[in-house]
Structures are given as C-alpha cells and as structure tokens.
Amino acid sequence: MTISNNPYLEATDRDLTYENKSTIGDATYPYHRHNNCEIYLFLKGNVKFYLEYACYQLSPYDLIIMNPEEMHRIVCDDDSLYERITINIKKSYMDKLSNSTTDLSACFYQRPIGTGNILSLTQKQSEDLFNLCNLLDNAISSTDYGHSIQKDAYLSLLLVLVNSIFEKNTSNSISIMPNYLIETMQYIENHLNETISLQQLGIRFHQDKNYLSQQFKKHTGMTLRHYLLDRRIACAKSLLLSGCNVTEACYQSGFNDYANFIRSFTKLEGTSPGRFKKT
User: Fold this and answer.
1) What is the residue-averaged pLDDT of the chain?
2) Which PANTHER family does the record associate with it (predicted)?
C-alpha cells in the first residue's frame, strides 16, 4: 500500500514485497527511491540503469542492491522483453532476522551512497540466487502450514548469499553518464544550503542553461528544480534524524522560507518534519 505523495518516493508499509516482472516495449522510468531496501536482479532486456550520479548498461544476472537514500531509474532502449526480479525489504525486518554476528542489512548500508551497488555473479551464484528467489516467492504466496517460517528462512538465506557476494565483489562497472551531468549533481549535493540557479549551473559547467536543463531531464527524468527539492528534503531528513530541530534542518538544507519548507516536506513525505523527527 502506497503511503507517500512524493512522485519520486515509492513507499510501502509492507515488510517485504517480491515481484517478478516482464514487460515489452520502450519504457522510461523516472528517478525514484523506495522507503525500503531493494534487491534488483536483472534477467533480460536492453536496459540502462541510472543510479545516483552514474549510468550502467546492464547484462543478464547483474545484481543491484540499493538502500532507501539511493535514487535510481531505468531506461529500456528498445522493445525487447524486459524481465527482472525486485525484492523490497524493510530494515526493521532484516534486523529481526539478524543476530549479533550476522547483520543481514550490511550490504545496503556499510558502503558510501552510490558505490558498490552492482554485483557481478558467477554461474553458480546466479543459479543459487535464482533458486532462492523462487523458493521465497512460493513461500510468500503459500498458505500451507509453516509458510511464514519458510519465508523468513528463505529470505535469511537469500540475504546471507547477497551479503557474501557483496563482501567478495570485484566488479568495476563503467558509468556512461556524461561527466558534466555527474559534476552538476555532485555540485548540487555539496552546495544544498546555498542558492542554486539554472543560470549559475550553466555558467559553472560551461553549458547553455537550456541545453543543460534538457539534458538533465533526459537523463534523470526529473527537472533540475524537482531534483534540487528532492535532495534538500533528503538532507533535511538526515539532519532531523541526527538531532537537529526543525528550524535548523530547514535552513541547513537550503530552504530560506520556513513555511515553504514545512509545506514541501509534508507534501512530499506525507508527514510534517516535526512528526517525522518523532518517529
């Protein structure tokens, strides 16, 4: 069940969702985040995967792991069959399945944002992961005796495998995102508490402002204005969780108008900054 009005945040109140999707035809999905961690297993298609500042051409059985702060989008380059498995898991659910020696959420959080996301699998790892996905899917849809215990067991085994692959990962995927767009996004991230305009960005990165705006929308699916707003809201959330009060989070994340901050935060997150801080 969706619980957010933010078009760039796909939110659910479920602990676990599993989907095996197949679609045909050109498709473009805008940048978005989830309020859960995501395991994405690419099976088939001609797909570019945009993740934070990077863009990757995917190969079958590429495995991608993402935490709730990592923006991503997908572009299908032709009308070939696009098939993938996505598993979204709440951190609190992984914490419940973890123990003092095994943190099943480690691969999602114990790395810098936007790095170490793409994992290349061996043939055996691909087969093992695919089999566990099928077992998990069957357990989720089952009503047989013990199905909930089976679900927890298969999810635990799947997360152990993903974390093991992550720890040994040597993949060095090459980004095909244009450098000036990477630099633009990094500049925005590093100057959120300052005034940022399209004209200013065009001058800084030696691009016509209209061309920069068009290319940014083409590659991200978002306008620069909406991207900047989303990053400022994400910054404000981090500040609130780190102990800042609402006023401090407002101005330190780049909002110069307190009322606008409250209105924008509430609209995009479905709750006020004050209530978010208390959760």
Assistant:
1) 90
2) ARAC-FAMILY TRANSCRIPTIONAL REGULATOR, HTH-TYPE TRANSCRIPTIONAL REGULATOR EXSA
